[in-house]
Amino acid sequence: MIRQPFHLVETSPWPLTAAAGAFSLTVGLSAWFHGYGIICLTLGSILTLASIIQWWRDVIREGTFLGHHTSYVVKGLRWGIALFIVSEIIFFFAFFWAFFHSSLAPTPELGCVWPPKGLTPINPFATPILNTAILLGSGVIVTWTHHRILARDLEDATRRLLYTIIIALSFTALQLDEYKSASFTIADRIYGTTFFVATGFHGLHVIIGTLFLSICLLRLIHHHFSNGHHFGFEAAAWYWHFVDVVWILLYLCIYWWGS
Question: What is the pTM (predicted TM-score) of this model?
């Protein structure tokens, strides 16, 4: 048998089921927005969640129990998550482009002012600044967790990671309350559209990051990580820091400058 330094993954159905779930989720959301019920949305959510659970199970099995995640493989995984974050940066760049395209040269339909006439923006020094402090604090704690893993203090690392997840959930709860109390909707001209699309997708990324960290918490509890083998946590921490940076830009550009 020819030996190679890389890991050839087993044939897996999860990329196909994940793609089908994401497609159903997108179609279901569009159908729900237009009043066609939630059947497609529910099926898409179930299929996506099942694909995530099964796919993560296989990756954890390969890396923790089968020993396939060698240093060479981990190097490739690092490049993979780095390129993924770059693609996410480009994704959010489009939203900032749309916002500044409209805000720097408001059209007559908007009253040639920004925010548009008749629209009351959210106070940046209310919930948004609290959420900023919360998210930055969570970034500090997740970094602290990493240092505790490196110091082989897994019990303290588990406790710190639990704090991070609780803080992340409080961010999501506060953002939901902010949306409910907003005086405008996603249909209120370009301001409402760019605001809710940009902050909403960031909120979705916070939820995904919270899920990543929750899986890492379970793995810490089951002693899957060591000071020399914990790339799963590192990937989640990198993603969480990316979420922090995007929120700072959203706060400065959309909440503060845009108001």
Answer: 0.88
Question: Around Cβ 89, how many Cβ atoms within 10 Å?
Answer: 12
Note the pLDDT tens digit of each residue in 78-105. 999 999 999 999 999 999 999 998 888 8
Residues 74 and 6: their CA atoms lie apart, in Å, by 9
d(CA 77, CA 73): 6
Residue by residue, what is the 3-state secondary structure of 121-133?
CCCCCCHHHHHHH
User: Mind listing the pLDDT tens digit for each residue in 190-239?
Assistant: 888 899 999 999 999 999 999 999 999 999 999 888 888 888 899 999 99
Positive/negative CA dihedral, 175, 179, 181, 184: positive
| Whole-number Cα distances in Å, 172 to 4, 37, 120, 164 | 44, 25, 22, 13
Percent of the chain whose pLDDT exceeds 90 = 51
Q: Topology of domain 76-257, per CATH?
A: Four Helix Bundle (Hemerythrin (Met), subunit A) (1.20.120)
Q: Which amino acid is at 162?
A: L
Domain boundaries along the sequence of the chain: 14-68, 76-257
Give the whole-angstrom CA distance, residue 193 versus residue 191: 5
| CATH class given for the domain over 14-68 | mainly alpha
